[in-house]
Amino acid sequence: MEVKPWDDETDMKKFEACVRAIEMQGLLWGACIKNGIKKLTIMLTIVDDLMSPDNLIEDYLTCDPNNEYIQSVYIVAFNKI
After folding, report:
1. Which one, of 5, 69, 66, lies nearest residue 38 by Cα?
2. CA distances from 66 to 7, 59, 73, 77 (A)
3. pLDDT in tens, 32-66
4. Measured by CB atoms within 10 angstroms of the end CB, which terminus of the chain is less buried, N or C?
5. How crowded is residue 64: how many other Cβ atoms within 10 Å of its Cβ?
6. Parallel, antiparallel, or unpaired for β 27-35 and 70-74?
7. Distances from the Cα of 36 to the Cα of 1, 4, 9, 13, 40, angstroms
8. Across the chain, where does the E strand assignment appear?
9. From residue 13, how far is each of 7, 23, 40 by CA, in Å?
10. Is the pLDDT of residue 4 over 80?
């Protein structure tokens, strides 16, 4: 998942903490890469029976208070086992 902040002045440590602060049953955050163009690429595992990626993005990442930091969220790759 690729998460972009509103501007290039965003403190990326606080930005990552904002994303990782979301805790839900069926969600496990993994490794992340802070790219030079000010975006966060983060791996996550979702238990399909407990939650959906759309729910995570629409109800948690892009609404208050997280939308103060987060401009957009994109699913870069999706694997289902």
Report:
1. 5
2. 14, 10, 12, 22
3. 987 766 889 999 999 888 888 888 888 888 888 88
4. C
5. 6
6. unpaired
7. 16, 12, 12, 13, 9
8. 2-5, 27-35, 39-46, 70-74
9. 14, 18, 10
10. yes
